[in-house]
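Exercise: predict the fold of this chain.
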Amino acid sequence: MTVLDFARRKQAGEPIVMITAYDALFAGLVDAAGVDAILVGDSVATALGGEETTLSATVEQMIYHGRMVRRGARRALVVVDMPFMSYQVSAEDAVRNGGRILKETGAGAVKLEGGAEVAPAVEALVTAGVPVMGHLGFTPQAVHQLGGPRQQARDHSALETLIRDARALEKAGAFAVVLSTMPGRIAQKVTHVLAIPTIGFGAGPLCDGQVLVLTDMLGLSGGDGAAGAKRYAELGAEVREAVARYAQEVRGGP
């Protein structure tokens, strides 16, 4: 799976399946299950690291986890998040950090958050040979500015801004864009005006593809997980029960 396949999928009307993973073990499992793309999200900070936000993730951490995922993935396109402050300061920073991520992980693309304000960084990365996926709507790296993980783009004015940002990313060379935490009708309109694919996360079923956080969909994250995340298993409960049985047997003696 390559970035060119994303464009072909949109043209053919074939949905794109994307999921997060953070290590070789789960990357191999989801790859064998047939996903099209694996996102090594900066959500590793919250999903595995216990942090309240994704802001603590570093370039070094993303490279570490990206390299592991790339070892496990045989077919899926691996996309690695660029963490907070690795591309916002300047286009030069973006190219330096994005190029390092691509080079040291073997991934096929990077993802960054934001609209028109990050278009120069996207263009610089693409010019340097680094494929870029965009991310609009609820952007976790701006969680404090947005007042928490709440639904975005809920009115006509917000839709106009969203479309303007999406077109700026497309013009800058992004090969796809994640639309996160917004009404489905809004995401559908953005999907319609773009030539590049949209990947929905809590944005309704009418995007060109969908992405979920693996720990949420498997019931491993506790609580309700991310907003809009459908659960397909309850592995957290199974793990607790299995370990409890083991502990009971050990304590019960031979």
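Check your answer against the key: The CA atoms of residues 20 and 58 lie 17 Å apart.
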